[in-house]
Amino acid sequence: MKYFFIILALFCIACSKSKIEPMQENQQTDIMEQIIEDKTQSSENDKVLNGASKTLQEFNETLTKERDTYKIQCDNKNGDSCIKLALSYYVESPDSNADLINDLYKRAAIYLQDSCDREDYHACSALGGLYETGDGVGKIDRIKSTKLYKIACDGKDSRGCFNLGVSEIGCLTCQITDKNKILKSLEYFKRACEYGSATSCYTVGNIYMQNENIEKDQLSLAKQYLQKACEMGDKRGCV
């Protein structure tokens, strides 16, 4: 679970800068894992699941291929790269590389905290992911992770807003019946979309398509957000 959470967070990093949602078996609220673990049967979920599996495979291949680059960047105190480096070793062998992985997460937490203190909001969001999973920070602290996501989101970091949206509804492919939670998550996803996350634009459109009676003219809104996602590079929105 943790592995996918981290991937989601990193996935959103890419999206926020025009790259790709909260590793262990419990890490960064990141959608990837939730998409893979939710066994719903709708054709839309099947499409998302297939896309996520392909993306996950490609992401794993990139982690291994770019390991030397991540190491150099991590040595230069880039917290995100330390996380990616840790993930590259996790993909290779989580057990035999456990000590190295833990050390890299600790380094990532230190570097990200320093960057966050200097108002690097992207770093605040990544640090929130570590607190959500407990990697490199001692223990899971979701109050702290949410606080960091909010700082990031208020600083116009799309990943922070995206993670807050996921936190509100718990999972992107779950059937959510609480309208208030849906509306609150949409608020965060829309902000993430505004700040440059194509995945978030798609998520807004998809939520409107999958849930009835949320807002007036929501079908029209769904089409607008899906089109925006498509234009920003998320092919799932090209319908």
Walk me through what this model shows:
This protein has 239 residues and is an all-alpha fold. Helices cover 71% and strands 0% of the residues. The chain is built from twelve helices and no strands. It has helices spanning 2-16, 31-37, 43-65, 67-75, 79-92, 98-117, 121-133, 142-154, 158-169, 179-194, 198-210, 218-231. Helix 7 packs parallel to helix 9 (158-169), helix 8 packs across helix 9 and helix 10 runs antiparallel to helix 11 (198-210). It is globular, with a radius of gyration of 17 Å. Residues 3-52 have low confidence and may be disordered.
Task: Give me some keywords for this one.
12 helices; mainly alpha; 71% helix; disordered N terminus
Low-confidence stretches: 3-52
Q: Given the structure, what is the number of helices? A: 12
Q: Cα distance, first to last residue? A: 31 Å
Elements, N to C (H/E)? HHHHHHHHHHHH
Largest sheet: none
What is the residue-averaged pLDDT? 80
Radius of gyration over C-alpha positions, nearest whole angstrom: 17 Å
Structural class: mainly alpha
How many E-type strands?
0
Percent helix among the residues? over 70%
Overall shape: globular
What percentage of the residues does DSSP assign to strands (E)? under 5%
Query: Assembly state here?
Result: single chain
Kindly summarize this structure in a few lines.
The protein has 239 residues and is an all-alpha fold.
List the helices and strands and how they pair.
Blueprint: H1 2-16, H2 31-37, H3 43-65, H4 67-75, H5 79-92, H6 98-117, H7 121-133, H8 142-154, H9 158-169, H10 179-194, H11 198-210, H12 218-231
